[in-house]
Amino acid sequence: MRTEDLIKALDADARSEAMPLGRAWWLAVGVAAVVAAAVFFTTIGPRPDIMLAMHTMRFLSKFVFTLALAASAFTLIGALSRPGAASRRAKLWMAAAPVLVVIAVMLELFVVPEADWGRRLVGSNSIICMTFIPLIGIGPLAIFLSVLRYGAPTRPVLAGAVAGLLAGGLAATFYAAHCTDDSPLFVATWYTIAITFLTALGALGGRFFVRW
Hints:
The chain has one domain (25-210). It contains ten helices and no strands. The protein has helices at 3-15, 21-43, 50-53, 57-80, 88-93, 96-111, 117-122, 126-150, 156-176, 184-210. The longest helix has 27 residues, at 184-210. The radius of gyration is 18 Å and the shape is globular. The two termini are 16 Å apart.
């Protein structure tokens, strides 16, 4: 059997499952959000001054970044889990979150005195950030890798990495409600490192558990 015929056969088989793959992804995100919320609220929970923080642009900008990352990763992973599905446009949307962060950092550097740049970048919660984003995201990542096995990705390592980005975006969204370091400099540095860990873990998961 030729490779093209095999891919088409796998695609047809995936579509014939009891639950359509698209619906499975939406269900997975819902379950993953519940799992992430359970970990978040039983460990660190929201910051005490969250109601006041919600009125500041720096606090809200964190969610713009994390939700943009999660949304674009969700779109891409849906395409990557189907053999032969077009993914070029979804890949382009993955640039949205990094571009937003770069813009926010540039604005921060413009309005904040240079003497404060280092303090805002280091913040006071870097260790907590790098601990709890992976901790909150590990359960969702396992769920997303399971759905990838339900599909038939032709590039399992890439699909696994995107699953890590999706889990990281979801976890960072919850963690942002706890974090008192609202500077884009902090977000661009420490959130990115924590999400990168989940991305690498997802790629490994794709390599060893999703390949076919």
